[in-house]
Recover the amino acids of this structure.
């Protein structure tokens, strides 16, 4: 089959690779129908994460089950499935506690050991624990399928930011970052009842999406003046801050604007975030730091239900579609910020 | 009156200072009957906190109300009161949310602006919001009064560590640090139902107190082997970790032994703690960092009730008593670790 392979910073290629096949009896093989390029893929694309030539890329995908191992119970050939960005056995302590990203047998798509989502097909370990079946009546509605695709990562991650930050009905929330995760955090905060949602972003097109998702206030700066404005407009700080970038600058901002007794929900992969942590302020004002790599598997059922009920539509974050050959151009578009998020249709 | 004054690292003196008097109508004047020297006082005593000569010391005290301002409603002359280590107005948003240490009108005892507890008397701002009256029938029981004294700080702080770490009935907990706060964290974790309590400490006398408070496992090391032992004995990490020191080393240990999906409750004043934070591990395993300067005022009523009911006795942490003239020797004893915690009886 053909799949995307990392070669060097700025260099991903679509190449022939071995066809996936069942290895363990709990495996499924899934033909990929929809995939994404993720903001976090840019970390290796820009050379900031240590990657090796030959590693496979892509951790967000949906598809059709082509084959299942003899121990798979809940899925069959032909089922439409959503894959969270990490696979998990669904049985261990952490899976039962809904921290599937810490599954003792789990792992991430792509890299050296697993198929990536940016290809024609994937061997999916622990199919029952990992994959979520889309009800048959919705399995071929292309508009709905596009809306579901962010469930594989960014919507669940934005939701995790909102949950971790403790967004409650009537609360004031802030989202730092206008990437797809930040935008989804706005949507999730709105869904959880936030009354006022301030987004910190720099791109007008993305802020427009944020407005559609429920953002009420827009801040294009990040320095002292922006902090002062946020403290002023909230009379002392934001109860629920969602940090969706992961840099020192964004974490510094999160610490500066959080309200005493409030929380920062952080989901941006922490490249530099530690340097930005103001532990003194967190300590002095009992501000909680909660979050991490989102256990998206835990959230898919509830978010999918709202989505199928027409109450949730994250599809505006997907503003460019490419086919498999177009994946390298998709990376370039995200790197150059001419696209928020790229959908891949192999 | 006479009170303790900071001069330089290693140099505190008991001197004549102006008598306290009512300034605001919400003030009380309290004659100090019991005070403490705190582990956190050692930060300035050792020159690690920036203090200025002339500042007043002591933030833990109990006493008898001598006078009240005309707006004080809940207290009268002669009442026995417990003072939390911070004063607070009891009325602002943060007080109502039980984050009294972030009170918009609040502050800390001692320093340049306020009387310290290590003296004969104190002007207490916001007396109604700050001070907690001891029921008259218990107001003169010297044994009980000694047991109450840790309510001013270390017991409430240990309890805050336990609450922040999410200690639940049946859970496994770890306490890092065998100072008075760490020992009180053991007591608080036991009270909240922890089944297994591992304490990391280096002093046999303190570990003996910890055993009496409910600790079940004792670890004298902090390096890789100690971490491996903790991970081994808990099959993968401790759900509720209480960090009661504040150094890089203790925070590093806390991050290393926390269980995926668990929490670190941190109450050690963070001198260096940031350097020890393993944000990557916290992020990868959704480990929450929660805590800060304890809103002790919020906890006094519930802890006092248990204490008066005979269910809670932190007095073993007070292993040396001095009079006011003995305060400098008390500092030396705590600095030299020949005392866990010093009670001062002016």
């Amino acid at each position: 089959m053909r799949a995307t392979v990392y070669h060097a910073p700025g260099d991903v290629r679509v190449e022939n690779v071995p066809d996936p096949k069942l290895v363990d009896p709990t495996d499924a093989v899934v033909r990929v129908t929809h995939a994404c390029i993720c903001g976090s893929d840019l970390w290796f694309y820009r050379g900031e994460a240590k990657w090796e030539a030959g590693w496979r890329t892509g951790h967000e995908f949906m598809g059709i089950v082509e084959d299942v191992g003899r121990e798979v119970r809940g899925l069959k050939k032909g089922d439409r499935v959503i894959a969270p960005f990490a696979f998990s056995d669904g049985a261990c302590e952490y899976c039962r506690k809904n921290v599937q990203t810490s599954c003792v047998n789990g792992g991430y798509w792509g890299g050296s050991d697993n198929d990536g989502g940016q290809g024609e097909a994937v061997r999916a370990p622990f199919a029952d624990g990992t994959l979520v079946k889309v009800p048959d009546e919705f399995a071929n509605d292309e508009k709905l399928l596009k809306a579901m695709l962010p469930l594989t990562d960014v919507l669940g991650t934005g939701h995790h930011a909102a949950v971790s930050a403790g967004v409650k009905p009537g609360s004031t929330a802030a989202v730092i970052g206008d990437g797809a995760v930040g935008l989804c955090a706005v949507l999730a905060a709105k869904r959880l009842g936030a009354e006022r949602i301030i987004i910190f972003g720099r791109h007008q097109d993305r802020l427009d999406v944020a407005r559609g998702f429920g953002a009420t206030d827009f801040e294009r700066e990040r320095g002292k003046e922006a902090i002062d404005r946020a403290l002023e407009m909230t009379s002392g700080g934001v109860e629920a801050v969602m940090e969706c970038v992961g840099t020192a600058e964004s974490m510094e901002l999160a610490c500066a604007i959080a309200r005493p007794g409030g929380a920062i929900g952080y989901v941006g992969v922490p490249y530099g975030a530690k340097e930005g942590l103001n532990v003194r302020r967190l300590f002095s004002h009992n501000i909680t730091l909660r979050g991490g790599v989102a256990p998206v598997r835990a959230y898919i059922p509830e978010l999918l239900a709202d989505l199928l009920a027409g109450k949730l539509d994250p599809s505006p974050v997907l503003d460019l579609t490419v086919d498999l050959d177009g994946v390298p151009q998709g990376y370039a578009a995200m790197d150059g910020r001419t696209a928020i998020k790229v959908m891949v249709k192999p």
User: Anything to note?
Assistant: The interface with chain A takes residues 94, 97, 99, 101-102, 104, 236, 260-261, 266, 269-270, 273-274, 277, 279-280, 282-293, 295 of chain B (CB under 8 Å). The domain at 2-153+295-345 of chain B is CATH 3.90.180.10 (Quinone Oxidoreductase; Chain A, domain 1). Residues 296-308 of chain B form the longest helix (13 residues). Chain B has a mean pLDDT of 97.
